[in-house]
Protein backbone atom coordinates (compact mmCIF):
# COMPACT_ATOMS: atom_id res chain seq x y z
CA UNK A 1 0.00 0.00 0.00
CA UNK A 2 1.25 3.46 -0.91
CA UNK A 3 0.67 6.35 1.48
CA UNK A 4 0.62 9.93 0.24
CA UNK A 5 1.12 12.72 2.75
CA UNK A 6 -1.02 15.39 1.20
CA UNK A 7 -2.91 18.58 1.85
CA UNK A 8 -5.83 19.36 -0.48
CA UNK A 9 -5.03 22.48 -2.53
CA UNK A 10 -1.25 21.99 -2.21
CA UNK A 11 1.22 20.83 -4.87
CA UNK A 12 0.83 17.31 -3.47
CA UNK A 13 -2.44 17.33 -5.43
CA UNK A 14 -0.44 16.46 -8.55
CA UNK A 15 0.62 13.20 -6.91
CA UNK A 16 -2.93 12.53 -5.71
CA UNK A 17 -4.12 12.87 -9.33
CA UNK A 18 -1.30 10.65 -10.58
CA UNK A 19 -2.03 7.88 -8.06
CA UNK A 20 -5.71 7.94 -8.95
CA UNK A 21 -4.83 7.74 -12.66
CA UNK A 22 -2.69 4.63 -12.10
CA UNK A 23 -5.34 2.60 -10.30
CA UNK A 24 -2.72 1.53 -7.74
CA UNK A 25 -3.99 1.04 -4.17
CA UNK A 26 -3.08 4.05 -2.04
CA UNK A 27 -4.19 5.91 1.04
CA UNK A 28 -4.06 9.59 1.88
CA UNK A 29 -2.51 10.85 5.11
CA UNK A 30 -3.82 14.39 5.40
CA UNK A 31 -1.33 16.98 6.63
CA UNK A 32 -2.91 20.08 8.11
CA UNK A 33 -0.65 22.84 6.74
CA UNK A 34 -2.53 25.83 8.29
CA UNK A 35 -2.09 24.22 11.73
CA UNK A 36 1.61 23.63 11.05
CA UNK A 37 1.48 19.83 11.20
CA UNK A 38 4.31 19.77 8.64
CA UNK A 39 6.60 21.18 11.35
CA UNK A 40 5.59 18.66 14.03
CA UNK A 41 8.30 16.42 15.42
CA UNK A 42 6.77 13.27 13.98
CA UNK A 43 6.33 14.76 10.51
CA UNK A 44 9.86 16.18 10.44
CA UNK A 45 11.14 12.66 11.07
CA UNK A 46 9.41 11.64 7.86
CA UNK A 47 10.40 14.75 5.89
CA UNK A 48 12.95 17.05 7.53
CA UNK A 49 12.10 19.67 4.88
CA UNK A 50 8.70 20.13 6.53
CA UNK A 51 6.72 20.04 3.31
CA UNK A 52 4.18 17.95 1.45
CA UNK A 53 4.19 15.72 -0.50
CA UNK A 54 5.85 12.60 0.82
CA UNK A 55 5.07 9.25 -0.75
CA UNK A 56 5.73 6.20 1.42
CA UNK A 57 6.07 2.83 -0.27
CA UNK A 58 6.87 0.28 2.44
CA UNK A 59 10.32 1.13 3.77
CA UNK A 60 10.92 3.73 1.04
CA UNK A 61 9.90 7.38 1.42
CA UNK A 62 10.35 9.91 -1.35
CA UNK A 63 9.81 13.68 -1.50
CA UNK A 64 9.67 16.33 -4.28
CA UNK A 65 6.70 16.31 -6.63
CA UNK A 66 8.70 15.84 -9.81
CA UNK A 67 10.66 12.89 -8.37
CA UNK A 68 7.51 11.29 -6.99
CA UNK A 69 5.69 11.62 -10.30
CA UNK A 70 8.55 9.86 -12.02
CA UNK A 71 8.59 7.13 -9.37
CA UNK A 72 4.83 6.58 -9.65
CA UNK A 73 5.10 6.31 -13.43
CA UNK A 74 7.64 3.50 -12.91
CA UNK A 75 5.36 1.70 -10.44
CA UNK A 76 2.51 1.68 -12.95
CA UNK A 77 3.96 1.45 -16.47
CA UNK A 78 0.60 0.23 -17.78
CA UNK A 79 -0.88 3.66 -17.00
CA UNK A 80 1.54 5.20 -19.52
CA UNK A 81 1.97 8.43 -17.60
CA UNK A 82 5.58 8.94 -18.68
CA UNK A 83 6.20 9.19 -22.44
CA UNK A 84 8.41 6.60 -24.13
CA UNK A 85 9.35 8.72 -27.11
CA UNK A 86 12.72 10.41 -26.43
CA UNK A 87 11.52 13.92 -27.25
CA UNK A 88 8.30 13.58 -25.31
CA UNK A 89 10.25 12.11 -22.38
CA UNK A 90 12.53 15.15 -22.49
CA UNK A 91 9.60 17.54 -22.82
CA UNK A 92 7.83 15.91 -19.87
CA UNK A 93 10.97 16.30 -17.72
CA UNK A 94 11.30 19.90 -18.93
CA UNK A 95 7.77 20.76 -17.77
CA UNK A 96 8.27 19.09 -14.39
CA UNK A 97 11.55 20.92 -13.80
CA UNK A 98 10.11 24.27 -14.80
CA UNK A 99 6.87 23.86 -12.84
CA UNK A 100 8.79 22.93 -9.67
CA UNK A 101 11.56 25.50 -9.95
CA UNK A 102 9.86 28.31 -11.89
CA UNK A 103 6.09 28.38 -11.37
CA UNK A 104 6.13 27.07 -7.81
CA UNK A 105 8.89 29.40 -6.64
CA UNK A 106 7.27 32.46 -8.26
CA UNK A 107 4.03 31.58 -6.47
CA UNK A 108 5.82 30.99 -3.16
CA UNK A 109 6.86 34.65 -3.09
CA UNK A 110 3.16 35.56 -2.99
CA UNK A 111 2.00 32.70 -0.73
CA UNK A 112 4.90 32.47 1.68
CA UNK A 113 6.96 35.71 1.73
CA UNK A 114 8.12 34.80 5.27
CA UNK A 115 10.53 32.38 3.59
CA UNK A 116 12.35 35.30 2.02
CA UNK A 117 12.25 38.12 4.58
CA UNK A 118 11.43 38.82 8.22
CA UNK A 119 10.24 42.41 8.39
CA UNK A 120 6.78 43.41 7.21
CA UNK A 121 7.94 46.05 4.70
CA UNK A 122 10.27 43.63 2.94
CA UNK A 123 7.60 40.92 2.96
CA UNK A 124 5.07 43.28 1.35
CA UNK A 125 7.62 44.16 -1.35
CA UNK A 126 8.30 40.47 -1.98
CA UNK A 127 4.57 39.77 -2.37
CA UNK A 128 4.21 42.66 -4.83
CA UNK A 129 7.18 41.58 -6.92
CA UNK A 130 6.06 37.95 -6.61
CA UNK A 131 2.65 38.85 -8.04
CA UNK A 132 4.27 40.42 -11.11
CA UNK A 133 6.67 37.50 -11.56
CA UNK A 134 3.87 34.96 -11.14
CA UNK A 135 1.67 36.71 -13.70
CA UNK A 136 4.57 36.84 -16.18
CA UNK A 137 5.36 33.17 -15.57
CA UNK A 138 1.71 32.16 -16.10
CA UNK A 139 1.86 34.07 -19.39
CA UNK A 140 4.98 32.11 -20.35
CA UNK A 141 3.05 28.87 -19.81
CA UNK A 142 0.27 30.15 -22.06
CA UNK A 143 2.79 31.19 -24.72
CA UNK A 144 4.61 27.86 -24.53
CA UNK A 145 1.41 25.86 -24.95
CA UNK A 146 0.46 28.02 -27.97
CA UNK A 147 3.94 27.67 -29.48
CA UNK A 148 4.03 23.89 -28.94
CA UNK A 149 0.55 23.45 -30.46
CA UNK A 150 0.38 19.85 -29.26
CA UNK A 151 -2.52 17.77 -27.87
CA UNK A 152 -0.84 17.45 -24.47
CA UNK A 153 1.96 19.28 -22.63
CA UNK A 154 4.66 16.75 -23.51
CA UNK A 155 3.37 15.92 -26.99
CA UNK A 156 0.83 13.45 -28.33
CA UNK A 157 0.51 11.43 -25.16
CA UNK A 158 -1.08 12.40 -21.87
CA UNK A 159 1.55 12.46 -19.12
CA UNK A 160 2.52 13.51 -15.62
CA UNK A 161 3.29 16.96 -17.04
CA UNK A 162 -0.42 17.48 -17.72
CA UNK A 163 -1.41 16.61 -14.15
CA UNK A 164 1.25 18.79 -12.55
CA UNK A 165 0.41 21.69 -14.88
CA UNK A 166 -3.27 21.33 -14.04
CA UNK A 167 -2.61 21.96 -10.32
CA UNK A 168 -1.03 25.29 -11.23
CA UNK A 169 -4.04 26.17 -13.39
CA UNK A 170 -6.16 25.67 -10.23
CA UNK A 171 -3.79 27.95 -8.29
CA UNK A 172 -4.26 30.64 -10.94
CA UNK A 173 -8.01 30.32 -10.46
CA UNK A 174 -7.70 30.14 -6.67
CA UNK A 175 -8.34 32.87 -4.11
CA UNK A 176 -4.78 34.12 -3.76
CA UNK A 177 -4.14 34.90 -7.46
CA UNK A 178 -7.78 35.11 -8.64
CA UNK A 179 -6.82 35.27 -12.30
CA UNK A 180 -9.52 35.13 -14.92
CA UNK A 181 -7.94 31.95 -16.26
CA UNK A 182 -10.57 31.35 -18.96
CA UNK A 183 -10.16 34.85 -20.43
CA UNK A 184 -6.49 35.59 -19.85
CA UNK A 185 -5.00 32.13 -20.42
CA UNK A 186 -7.31 30.53 -23.00
CA UNK A 187 -4.91 27.88 -24.31
CA UNK A 188 -3.94 26.77 -20.81
CA UNK A 189 -7.66 26.68 -19.94
CA UNK A 190 -8.37 24.53 -22.99
CA UNK A 191 -5.69 22.16 -21.71
CA UNK A 192 -7.15 22.28 -18.17
CA UNK A 193 -10.61 21.39 -19.54
CA UNK A 194 -9.21 18.25 -21.15
CA UNK A 195 -7.49 17.26 -17.90
CA UNK A 196 -10.63 18.06 -15.88
CA UNK A 197 -12.71 15.82 -18.13
CA UNK A 198 -10.75 12.74 -17.03
CA UNK A 199 -12.62 10.41 -14.67
CA UNK A 200 -9.67 10.12 -12.26
CA UNK A 201 -9.39 13.90 -11.99
CA UNK A 202 -13.10 14.20 -11.26
CA UNK A 203 -12.88 11.56 -8.53
CA UNK A 204 -10.02 13.43 -6.85
CA UNK A 205 -11.81 16.77 -7.27
CA UNK A 206 -14.81 15.37 -5.38
CA UNK A 207 -12.48 14.73 -2.42
CA UNK A 208 -10.09 17.70 -2.63
CA UNK A 209 -12.47 20.36 -3.96
CA UNK A 210 -10.07 22.34 -6.18
CA UNK A 211 -11.49 24.80 -8.76
CA UNK A 212 -12.39 23.43 -12.18
CA UNK A 213 -12.43 25.27 -15.52
CA UNK A 214 -15.79 26.70 -16.61
N1 LIG B 1 10.07 21.41 -3.90
C1 LIG B 1 8.98 20.78 -3.20
C2 LIG B 1 8.05 21.87 -2.67
C3 LIG B 1 7.03 21.33 -1.71
C4 LIG B 1 6.24 22.46 -1.07
O1 LIG B 1 6.66 23.63 -1.02
N2 LIG B 1 5.06 22.11 -0.54
C5 LIG B 1 4.25 23.09 0.12
C6 LIG B 1 2.78 22.93 -0.30
S1 LIG B 1 2.53 23.35 -2.01
C7 LIG B 1 4.32 22.92 1.61
O2 LIG B 1 4.38 21.82 2.11
N3 LIG B 1 4.29 24.04 2.34
C8 LIG B 1 4.29 24.02 3.76
C9 LIG B 1 5.17 25.07 4.36
O3 LIG B 1 5.83 25.81 3.64
O4 LIG B 1 5.16 25.15 5.61
C10 LIG B 1 8.23 19.81 -4.11
O5 LIG B 1 8.19 20.05 -5.32
O6 LIG B 1 7.71 18.80 -3.63
Structure summary:
By secondary structure, the chain is α+β, with helices and mostly antiparallel strands.
Q: What is the number of beta strands? A: 4
Structural class: alpha+beta
Mean pLDDT: 98
List the secondary-structure elements in sequence, H or E.
Answer: EHEHEEHHHHHHH
**What is the CATH topology descriptor of the largest domain?**
Glutathione S-transferase Yfyf (Class Pi), Chain A, domain 2
Query: How are strands sequenced across the largest beta sheet?
Result: 2-1-3-4
Can you tell me the CATH class of the largest domain?
Mainly Alpha
Number of domains as seen in the coordinates: 2
Number of helices: 9
Give the low-pLDDT segments: none
Radius of gyration using CA atoms only? 17 Å
Describe this structure in words.
- This protein is α+β, with helices and mostly antiparallel strands and about 210 residues long.
- The chain folds into two domains: about 1-80, Glutaredoxin (3-Layer(aba) Sandwich), CATH 3.40.30.10; about 85-200, Glutathione S-transferase Yfyf (Class Pi), Chain A, domain 2 (Up-down Bundle), CATH 1.20.1050.10.
- Helix content is about 55%, strand content about 10%.
- The chain is built from nine helices and four strands.
- The protein has a four-stranded mixed β-sheet with strand order 2-1-3-4, with helices on one face.
- Strand 1 (about 1-5), helix 1 and strand 2 form a beta-alpha-beta unit.
- Helix 6 packs across helix 8 (about 185-195).
- The chain is globular and about 50 Å long.
- The mean pLDDT is about 100.
- The site of glutathione has 12 residues, from loops.
Amino acid sequence: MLTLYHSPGACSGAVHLALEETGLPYEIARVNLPEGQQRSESYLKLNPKGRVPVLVDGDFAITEVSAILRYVSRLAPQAKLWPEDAREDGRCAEWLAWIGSGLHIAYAHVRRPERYADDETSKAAIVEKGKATTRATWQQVEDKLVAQNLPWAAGNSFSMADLYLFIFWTWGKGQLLSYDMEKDFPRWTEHARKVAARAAVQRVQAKDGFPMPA
